[in-house]
Write a structure and sequence with these properties.
By secondary structure, this protein is an alpha+beta fold. The chain has 4 helices and 6 strands; from the N terminus they run αββααβαβββ. Helix content is 46%, strand content 17%.
């Protein structure tokens, strides 16, 4: 399943796709799973929002944007109902 692929990806993405230990950039996860899930980035982001609402995973916002790779922040950004997300919390993926 796509969720299983995401679960595996968040634990294997290296420091270049993370901020700290738990926060994995959405765009890094997408690049890791895209060939197998068959979704566009927009579809993947919509799917992530659904998974977040169902408590299958937790999305988080980038707060210290100045300390992060701008392109990763920009490519990862999801805006939904007044909230903004950039990360999947690695240990949250069920």
């Amino acid at each position: 399943s796509a969720l299983a692929l995401v679960r595996e990806a968040v634990h294997h993405i290296g420091p270049e796709g993370r901020y700290g230990d738990q926060k994995v950039f959405i765009s890094a996860v997408y690049r890791a799973v895209a060939p197998e899930i068959g979704m566009t980035m927009a579809e993947f982001k919509s799917w992530l929002l659904d998974r977040n609402r169902n408590n299958d995973l937790v999305l988080a916002r980038a707060d210290l944007v100045g300390a992060m790779d701008r392109s990763l922040v920009r490519d990862s950004e999801i805006e939904d109902r007044g909230a903004t997300f950039h990360f999947i919390l690695a240990d949250s993926v069920r």
